[in-house]
Specification:
This protein is α/β, with parallel strands linked by helices. The chain is 34% helix and 17% strand. The structure holds flavin mononucleotide.
Amino acid sequence: MKHLLFSPYTIKSVTLKNRIVMSPMCMYSSHNQDGHTQPFHLAHYESRAAGQVGLVMTEATSVTPEGRISHEDLGIWSDDHTEGLSTLTEAIHRHGAKAGIQLAHAGRKANLDSDIYAPSASSFSESLKTPVEMNEQQISYTVQSFKEGAERAKESRFDIIELHGAHGYLINQFLSPLTNFRTDKYGGSREKRYRFLSEIIDAVRESWTGPLFVRISGAEYHENGNKMEDFIYFAEKMKAQGVDLIDVSSGGVVPAPIDPYPGYQVKYAEKIKAEAGIDTGAVGLITSGNQAEEILRNERADLIFLARALLKNPYWPKQAADELGYKLEGPRQYTRAW
Ligand SMILES: Cc1cc2nc3c(=O)[nH]c(=O)nc-3n(C[C@H](O)[C@H](O)[C@H](O)COP(=O)(O)O)c2cc1C
């Protein structure tokens, strides 16, 4: 039987050897080193590539210093970052995996000593600062920073770029009526709330012709938040602008209780794929090979993003292959009996 989880996936000129993606996960390990790659990052990401993940997506990497979630985040706001990031892509490529990078800006969820910025001056929680409402100059500087981040990602030989438009970070703050109270051309209707992301996509596309993913939160868990019809509208717009895949997560816009269960977000990826006709990635409590295979077989999503399962077990692809009765090529120790 053909195993979809272990079948290749081609986007533009990039082919992933299988459908398993290491989901972006902040490791907060730059240790106040101005966002520079540390030995930890090389070991951490290379081990998942050696474990036969098809695409290793590095964590939310900030396009500006003030866009970091914390002082420990990786950064791509300076030309000085490309040397370390190049060693990272080299380590990932060594094992036949492709390297992706998630370009991010935390907006009002930045936990920094300096001023923080957002579409509107409303704080996420009592423990975080009230952000400065961005003026048009700050908006265009941030759009330009995403573009420069994409140029540095290219220079660092990443194969895929993902924009972080989920979890209540800056792009999501512009998209959501729960966090965007602007009355200018960047706020109000969903057309206007989409403008910031639209400008970023166009700016990135000026210098990046490779595969472009966007992660969104496909549910905001609040009655006044965006609804599925809004996400479908955003997805159609993104598709028209040349986005290749939408990685569908959920939540994080406002503090809201959610009750996750296995595959709890897959339905959002499925809906967006069906309605907007764009490829999607599914993420969220996907832990077994059979579960992943079912999602692909029923065309609910095209890629499977795994976070905590890969933190626990870098060799998760081997575990899934055993479960599905598929022979995974890999290091010899996989098959050696002790
Ligand atoms: C330690 C940790 C860090 C994370 N950092 C990011 C991140 O940088 N960017 C992002 O989009 N999601 C981030 N996430 C969310 C994961 O990518 C994923 O969407 C979520 O954990 C659900 O998938 P899972 O059930 O397979 O863990 C993080 C999750 C964890 C556990």
